[in-house]
Design goal:
The chain is mostly helical. Helices cover about 70% and strands about 0% of the residues. It contains eleven helices and no strands. Helix 3 runs antiparallel to helix 8. The longest helix has 29 residues. The protein starts with a helix and ends in a 9-residue tail after the last helix.
């Protein structure tokens, strides 16, 4: 028999695993348009990078992706409701590369979880994504997995914000002369922003999920047509 303390510890360990870059969902292959910010000269220093990452968090991750995570968490026992959240998120993601990255990472997360956890609900949604038109976006997959693993929705949103930053900072280290200490400093500096955007959007309903980051979208679309690209987005 598992005690409540053991269950809480297991949920925390699951959260750490989901936030770890060791999780094989392809986070090291994407820059979400950051590569084009660097190519255009808009991001040249750590200070520039910090401003851009804060914009991502406040305008895209918070009002859109954390809302989808919470909605998916709430709908974790209803596959039709999950698919509606999935569709809503996909239709609000303008850049083709962002849609492709989100669905590739989400489908991979569902595959890994279905293979490792033997959770019937995750397996059923993974099958629906594989065989129907359900998108399988990463935030929705994360919300579902978090719910099934007993991870609180707020913690799931926080770990998503943290994982997003570590992926972006990893990309920045390959694109800029950004050292490990500078990357860690930015990660620490932006921790309060992550916490702020998660809290600020905690009550935002799905119908008000609304990313608004025009410059990010423009650079993402320019990246699609770039002659040379290090990252897939």
């Amino acid at each position: 028999m598992t005690s409540d303390g053991d269950s809480d510890a297991r949920a925390s360990l699951s959260a750490y695993r989901l936030a770890d870059s060791f999780l094989p969902v392809g986070g090291n292959t994407v820059s979400y348009g950051l590569e084009q910010f660097v190519a255009s000269g808009r991001v040249e220093t750590a200070a520039d990078l910090g401003e851009v990452l804060e914009s991502y968090l406040r305008r895209q991750v918070g009002p859109c992706e954390t809302v989808a995570i919470r909605a998916a968490h709430d709908a974790a026992d209803d596959l039709d409701a999950l698919e509606r959240v999935d569709d809503a998120l996909l239709t609000r993601t303008l850049a083709a590369e962002f849609r492709e990255s989100a669905t590739k990472a989400g489908r991979r997360l569902l595959e890994v979880e279905a293979e490792t956890s033997a959770d019937s609900v995750v397996a059923a949604y993974e099958e629906r994504v594989a065989t129907t038109d359900a998108p399988g976006t990463y935030p929705v997959a994360l919300g579902l997995v978090a719910a099934r693993r007993g991870i609180d929705p707020a913690e799931a949103c926080l770990l998503h914000g943290h994982a997003f930053l570590t992926d972006m900072l990893g990309a920045a280290q390959r694109l800029l002369s950004l050292g490990h200490v500078a990357a860690q400093r930015l990660l620490d500096d932006l921790a309060d922003v992550v916490a702020d955007v998660v809290a600020a959007n905690a009550e935002r309903p799905l119908e008000r999920m609304s990313p608004f980051a025009p410059l990010i979208d423009v650079h993402a679309m320019e990246h699609e047509r770039a002659d040379r690209r290090l990252f897939v987005s």
